[in-house]
């Protein structure tokens, strides 16, 4: 239930509630994933993502995204939803990338230290190729993503 506000509205409270519910198992699982994927520049210290001590690199985020895409595709399915209506409340997707054509899934965030951030993927038009994008320190995620998708570098 908490995945919907976490992934659709980027709810920090939902992330922290998941961590509190899982207790020590949360920290163990995060450490196991960091070790399994060899995420050498990634350190996750809280469930909300708000701590300045949560750090990662674009490379590590791309590896983590691919892992999630391959092992937990339902997470990306949730990020594609426009809205989710539960029994007592509803959520509206506030990810700027989700409204773009060919969005496969992804997550955005913000902290003062990292700026606006995004990791996700898109299917390229007129192609069966999927392109992953990791942005760190953006001031305008939507504009930056649109520029990358329109870039000549993506033309086969």
Task: Give a written overview of the molecule.
The protein is α+β, with helices and mostly antiparallel strands and 156 residues long. It is 40% helix and 21% strand. It has 6 helices and 5 strands, in the order αααααβββββα. The strands form 2 sheets. A 3-stranded antiparallel beta sheet has the order 3-4-5, sandwiched between helices. β3 and β4 form a beta hairpin.
Helix-strand layout with pairing:
Blueprint: H1 3-8, H2 12-22, H3 24-36, H4 58-71, H5 73-80, E1 83-85, E2 90-92, E3 103-111, E4 115-123, E5 130-138, H6 141-150
Antiparallel strand pairs: 1-2, 3-4, 4-5
Helix pairs in contact: 2-3, 4-5
Work out the oligomeric state of the chains in this entry: single chain
Structural class: alpha+beta
How many distinct helices?
Answer: 6
Strand order of the largest sheet: 3-4-5
Order of helices and strands: HHHHHEEEEEH
Let me know the average pLDDT: 93
Q: What Rg, in angstroms, do the CA atoms define? A: 16 Å
- Distance between termini? 41 Å
- Count of β-strands: 5
Provide the descriptors you would attach to this structure in a database record.
single chain, 156 residues, alpha+beta, 3-stranded antiparallel sheet, 6 helices
What is the structure about, briefly put?
The chain has 156 residues and is of the alpha+beta class. Helices cover 40% and strands 21% of the residues.
């Amino acid at each position: 239930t908490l995945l919907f506000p976490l992934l659709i509205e980027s709810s920090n409270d939902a992330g922290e509630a998941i961590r509190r519910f899982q207790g020590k198992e949360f920290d163990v699982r995060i450490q196991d994933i960091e070790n399994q994927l060899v995420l050498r520049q990634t350190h996750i210290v809280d469930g909300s993502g708000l701590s300045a001590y949560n750090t990662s690199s674009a490379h590590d985020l791309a590896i983590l995204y691919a892992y999630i895409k391959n092992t937990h595709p339902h997470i990306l399915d949730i990020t594609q939803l426009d809205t989710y209506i539960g029994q007592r409340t509803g959520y509206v997707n506030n990810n700027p990338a989700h409204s773009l054509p060919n969005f496969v899934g992804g997550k955005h965030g913000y902290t003062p230290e990292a700026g606006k951030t995004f990791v996700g993927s898109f299917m390229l038009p007129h192609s069966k190729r999927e392109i992953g994008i990791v942005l760190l320190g953006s001031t305008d995620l939507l504009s930056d993503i649109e520029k990358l998708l329109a870039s000549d570098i993506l033309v086969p």
